[in-house]
Amino acid sequence: MTAVQLPELPFSLEPTGPDGGWTYENGVLTGLAGAEQDRFVPPGGDAVEPATDAPRLLGAAPEGDFQLIARVRVGFEAAFDAGVLYLHVGEREWAKLCLELSPELPTICTVVTRGQSDDVNSAVVEGDTHWLRLTRSGGAFAFHASADGERWTFVRVFTLGTEQERAAARIGFLVQSPTGKGCEVAFDRIAFRPTAPGDLRDGS
């Protein structure tokens, strides 16, 4: 798959990392992670680079505030299989908002990498499908999750990189299967809004 323009997004997407077999049909973007593919830099370790990598489909975010939204469905098979909204501001400055099997229950998880990765589990959710939202608001980024795409639960707010790097952020989708033999993920109800929520914590 070469660069693709989804009708829901005002920017094109390009595959990055391992082949994800990305397809788009009838409003559904599907990606496939291979065996033991992940994007994570273990905290406290001496490794210069992460041991593995995961398929990503990324594009340059327009200037200013935005929201990237998708409903994510994950074909859970093994611990830490996940569908992800992904933010990239530098080779060692990036973040993930995940619907992840962590390790036995579907969970909203986040990773923010500044040289090395942190790892936070936020909430257990029901089933294999949930809504995720990535926001840029001024100089900050925020993660939210929702069961219905209407009422949003605040997960995390943070910043990454320099002002120039944040302005050139690339955003999109990632699939992973760190301990498994592979994982298929579908993203639908994809939407882009050129604004940030008025309040990151009021459910809007």
From TrEMBL:
InterPro entries: ConA-like_dom_sf, DUF1349. It holds the Pfam family DUF1349. It comes from the Bacteria. Transmembrane segments: none annotated. This is DUF1349 domain-containing protein. It comes from Streptomyces argenteolus.
